[in-house]
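Question (not urgent): is this output format expected?
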Amino acid sequence: MADRYLNVGKIVNTHGIKGEVKVISLTDSPEQRYQKGNLLYLYHPDRPDPLELFIEHVRTHKKFYLLKFEGYDDINDVEVFKGGMLKVQVDEDETLEEGEYYFYQIIGSDVYTTEGEKLGTIKDILQTGANDVWVVQPERGKKEILLPYIEDCIREIDIERKTVTVHLLEGLV
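Got this back:
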């Protein structure tokens, strides 16, 4: 599991001339992720291997986070980071509360009704603000099913078996 990484931000541009990068946050806890001294891994299409980056300082600007990494003091040093994804290792991540899951643990799970009928496989998770919505791809080309991640609908999650049992609320199918 040490090789599992989670996306926490995307570098969209540089900022200024002193080595800062402009980051769109992709994490629910940016205050925890973007702290001085934290280790992030840069994955970039132009690099064969991830690059370890330690945060030297962080500040916000409009809807972005501006990060400066240790040892990168000039715009020319970080220009090549544009378009890269910032990640953290799962085993470095905080412990989740009961009933909380990583997206990778849910996506790919088979979905069954409480009556045992297979509905399909979870292919995506939409974050709506109120509650997440799980997108189920049925077999045989039927229309996608959108399941709200609420107790009335999602009855059981088995991470080891990659199965989810649901109660179909009226109007979902």
